[in-house]
Amino acid sequence: MSMAAIRWISGPVLRATVQGSFFLRECVRVGPKALLGEVVRIDGDEITVQVYEDTTGLKPGTLIEGEAKPLAIRVGPALLGNIFDGLLRPLTGIDARVRPGARAAAPSRLAFSPARQVGDAIGGGESLGELRPAAGRALALLVPPDVAGELVSIREAGEYDDVTPLATIRTADGRETGVAMSHSWPVRVPRPVARRLPMREPLVTGQRVLDALFPVALGGKAAIPGGFGTGKTVLLEALAKGCAADVIVYLGCGERGNELAGVLEELPQLVDPRSGRRLMERTVIIANTSNMPVAAREASIYSAITVAEYFRDQGLHVALMADSTSRWAEALREVSGRFGELPGEGGYPAYLSSRLAEFYERAALVETLAGTRGSVTVMGAISPPSGDFSEPVTSHTKRYVRAFWALDVKRAQARFYPAVHPLQSYAENAAEFAPWWNENGNTQWLELRRRFLMLLDEQSRLERMAKIIGKDALPARQQLTLACADLVNEAFLRQNAFAPKDRVAGPAKQAAMMRIIGRFIELATQAVAAGLAPDRLARLECLRPLVRMGEEIGNDEPEKFEAVGAALEAEFHALIPTPEKRDEAAAAG
Amino acid sequence: MKPRLLAEGCATRLAGPLLFLKRTVDVGLNEAVEVSGADGRTRLGRVAAADIDTLTIEVLESTAGLALSEIVVRFVGEPMGFALGPGILGRVFDGVGRVIDGGPPIPARETYPIEGLPWNPVARDVPRDFIETGVSAIDLMNSLVRGQKLPIFSGGGLPHDRMAADIATNARLARGAKGDFAIVFAGMGLPHDSAEFFRRRLEQGGALERTALFLNLAADSSTQRLLTPRYALTAAEYLAFVEGKHVLAILTDMTNYCEALREVSSSKGEIPSRKGFPGYLYSDLATLYERAGCIHGSGGTLTQLSILTMPSDDITHPIPDLTGYITEGQIVLSRDLDRRGINPPVNVLPSLSRLMKDGTGEKYTHRDHPALASQLYSAYARAVQTRVLAAVVGEDGLSEADRRYLAFGEGFERNLVNQAGARSFAESMDAGWRLLKGLPHAELTRLSDEQIARCLSRA
Ligand SMILES: Nc1ncnc2c1ncn2[C@@H]1O[C@H](COP(=O)(O)OP(=O)(O)O)[C@@H](O)[C@H]1O
Ligand SMILES: [Mg+2]
């Protein structure tokens, strides 16, 4: 075991004189409390160490022990349903105050049934059998991706703890390795996959504005920039509750303790309508709150994505929510400053961009080593200083994500949520998802998406014009455009995250709502062409039910949407009663 | 307590707040020290860095008057702490927790580290208990709950002091009585007259005997300003989580605190970030603001109401910006409303209470409260937008509906935000419903048909 003794210490950074050899990025234990640290620089017989915990009380002479491995976490089935700190140490079962020092999860017990036999050739990342947690879905006992060979022993079915080896594999070089339910993996190394697959399917988020206008791919990446109070956290939480993933990894990175307490209180009470299980059973929470040590904040994002990759390797679809990547970047900046590195743009180190790229690159839809299909979709919040999107973290992130969900202060101030700005946001290649929507009951998805986006675009132009000449001075057709755009906003894009029926909109509900609004636009266009005054539209009886349908009609009430649609047809029918008029309208439309 | 060590005649260099010593004692990082010179004054400090030969001490009070040859450093042997016990309410302390009201010392039970270890999120209870402040713009539109951290973003010359003092004396739990709260007041760089104003207002409101005052006045050392909120919050946490009281901590003015941090950082030669503030301003503020909340099983709660004057009334300045990212909302005061005689001059649009969703509604305030607040927000936002339009095209260029919104906006400011004395929650709700009656019912899309029928058709 290599040892070193502290020569100099200040804040979370120390320099030490070594006896024995250390490698770069080696994990170390510092002092009597065994604080976790990482070697970040080697210069002759001196190493520089970044310590992930409060260094109060350390002094010159204090001893450091090398772990002979990089910073690693233990991944396994027992992570589900629990909360951890940034280095994946459990937060349950400890004091009300988080004290620095070594901590490990107590082993948890799961039922195991073997699926392979002694003598089988086993590849890295393959499954050796099934694991059944007390609550939640069945998982596979995964061989670590870097272990392969011949199975020389395997336990019979029974209940075991998650750290005891249940099987032994003899590798090509003749060494025998034990395989337990959980295994250790270095956080900064992406877990290998068989191959990456092209992404043609959206991750259904349950948020209308995202699914309809700015979809993210299953295995894709999205960024949510927004000033304070614009709704980043509530949106991420809504996604954690409502999106169609099998596993959620929720990372609170440099944010509030109360928000995590809220998630912890709420998720165990909510039921996932797709599986009928408690939402908490599919969730792993990783918490490094703003007042916890900053260096651990830097590491927490890697812990989170490694956990996500582990569940992906189980053949599951995983969604990772990171709130907020800006706090991670700031931790990077702060630690870099302590090393005396030259600051670049905005004070961030020059490698900010490549670190962001590395992180987002770990999102993917893949064929796993075990031959199954799994994915990690990453959604990261960004907290730009002064809400200004031209700052380094936002602008670099923009280069690596395909979906950009920009939150708008104006909308948030009017309590129009989610405050996703329809013109500043985008989703590249959204059209690729049209076939998926086609198969899933929304045949007009592409067409209506285009129509909605065009209306919203035109609205902003017309509003600028109305500011000069007054709204009433606009021609009838343009007033109609404004009325329709208003309707798209109010009736479709606005979605109350706290209303029981509006929280999550399933694909069928979204399709019904899009269709009804599309139909309104069609009929209103015909009516105005037939001479109806545009301001008459605002007084239509059918309008209020239309605007309220998101909040008042649930996912499982298609007949009520039918009724709203029928009322709409009837009222317009009465407005354009005679066949001549209708012919005229059709000709004009 | 560990034996105290002494270092005499070891000082080698003094640079701003940093004092360098030959390392003659075996002490650890962040441990507290007391530095004294020929003038006999002791100054608090801490071990900021250590190597084999040298100790770097960060002196947390003014180093003026120190001469190298006469410096004596006493090592406390543990991080800076505050010895606390029963009887701190009704007392006055200086910015570093020393009694200055001429009374007896505090009978200390235990010493608490002033930095406070981070709370485990698992130990937190979600704050939910609605606090009635008597201010409609808060109670109705941006409700405060017990355990929340909610700052007032203000500007020089605006009535934030009065508002904070009113809240401190009027605040009660729903259906509770005045005096539900113990108050911890931390003044940082406070002008003497402001300190006096608070003391008098609390006395008049009968709240002084349930208040502990921590005063770092404008004339006191700016370095010490960094310690004041830490001592005050340590006392507040003690009252809340050891004695089990409901505590309201008032921190003012956070801008002075941040400026002191900038000063100290630059004298240490650190690389500045935005506007000269250190890159760790966010993390540093978080170590203060996160010391609020409800801790499971402790019986008490800690609510933070801090006051912050926005430099040049600019909400994008790093101090309000980073604060807003950490706190659970903000109450923004507006110079424009103040000029127009609206009191309190709360601009509700940029104001926010993030915890309102957890502490309002059927179980806490009133079942229609969330929808009513949302509808008022939506209508007022439209009114303000219409005002901009009216300024360009004139009122004649507006539609009938737009004119009604203009009138609504006026009424909202004059009759809801503006108030002569404290209002009960029910009175605030009534004021809200009355205003909505002036708008076309079909456009009240945040309310259900049932709510419109029930609440708006009454005379
Ligand atoms: N989708 C939503 N539905 C209803 N209210 C919302 C929604 N999004 C945000 N809010 C409101 O806005 C507040 C601030 O949102 P939050 O997500 O905390 O902002 P951020 O994380 O961007 O600072 C929340 O407390 C909530 O009251
Ligand atoms: Mg947030």
Key features of this structure:
heterodimer, A: alpha+beta, OB fold (Dihydrolipoamide Acetyltransferase, E2P), 4 domains, six-stranded antiparallel beta barrel, 16 helices, 26 strands, B: 459 residues, alpha/beta, Elongation Factor Tu (Ef-tu), domain 3, Rossmann fold, 13 helices, 32% helix, elongated, binds magnesium ion
Question: What can you tell me about this protein's structure?
Answer:
- The complex is a heterodimer of chains A (589) and B (459).
- Chain A is α+β, with helices and mostly antiparallel strands and 589 residues long.
- Chain A has 4 domains: 3-70, Beta Barrel (Elongation Factor Tu (Ef-tu), domain 3); 108-185, RNA polymerase II/Efflux pump adaptor protein, barrel-sandwich hybrid domain (OB fold (Dihydrolipoamide Acetyltransferase, E2P), Beta Barrel), CATH 2.40.50; 195-429, P-loop containing nucleotide triphosphate hydrolases (Rossmann fold), CATH 3.40.50; 445-582, Bovine Mitochondrial F1-atpase, Atp Synthase Beta Chain, Chain D, domain 3 (Bovine Mitochondrial F1-ATPase, ATP Synthase Beta Chain, Chain D, domain3).
- Chain A is 34% helix and 23% strand.
- In chain A, helix 4 packs across helix 5 and helix 11 runs antiparallel to helix 12.
- Chain B contains 13 helices and 22 strands.
- Chain B has helices at 136-139, 160-170, 192-204, 228-242, 254-267, 281-289, 318-326, 335-339, 356-359, 369-393, 400-417, 425-436, 449-456; strands at 5-8, 11-15, 18-22, 31-36, 42-51, 54-59, 72-79, 81-84, 92-94, 110-113, 124-125, 130-132, 144-145, 152-154, 172-173, 182-190, 211-217, 246-252, 293-295, 301-309, 329-333, 346-353.
- Chain B is elongated and about 85 Å long.
- The longest helix of chain B has 25 residues, at 369-393.
- Chain B is 32% helix and 25% strand.
- The model of chain B has no long low-confidence stretch (mean pLDDT 92).
- Classes of the chains: A alpha+beta (589), B alpha/beta (459).
- At the A-B interface, strand 1, helix 3, helix 5, helix 10 and helix 14 of A face strand 5, strand 11, helix 6, helix 7 and strand 22 of B.
- Strand 1 (3-10) of chain A pairs antiparallel with strand 5 of chain B.
- Magnesium ion binds at residues 232-233, 255, 323 of chain A.
